[in-house]
Amino acid sequence: MYATRCVIPVIKSPKDYQTYRISPQDSNRLAIIFDSTNANTSLTCCVEIFDVGGQTPPNRHQWALEMFFVLKGEGMAICDGKNMQIKAGDSLLVPPTGTHLIKNTGNSRLYTLTIMVPNEDFSELIRSGIPVELDEEDMAVLGKYDSLIPC
């Protein structure tokens, strides 16, 4: 017999997201949806917003899987020297130790849902950055997904 326990889900909307630019010169921002500080588990889930021409620095993770789901825009994913075009609706899974970067190659901002498991200090790195606000364009893009959240 399984023990039952009631888990109260945490529901957030874009106005609740804490958003950071890791370094002043970075051309991408990360809006944290859930991380180990508010989800009581070792994951980081955020919306990553790339300015036109923006990109992440090349990076790799020792143990973590990182998944990107493109919400809006188009770009280039580079992983271990392989270039792949990405666009809205595409998913990319980067295995541990894969050196990768994401670059916005489109004429508008690129938005990805980015999930890392386990956290591997990713949310701590994000939170050590510079707090920034989501602007009207960001809220308009993210607000489109409000209707997908069940009541």
From TrEMBL:
The entry's keywords: Isomerase
A GO term, aspect molecular function: isomerase activity
Domain Cupin type-2: 48-115
InterPro entries, A to Z: Cupin_2, Flavonoid_dioxygenase-like, RmlC-like_jellyroll, RmlC_Cupin_sf
Record bears the keyword Isomerase: yes
Keyword Ligase in annotation: no
Listed name of the protein: Mannose-6-phosphate isomerase
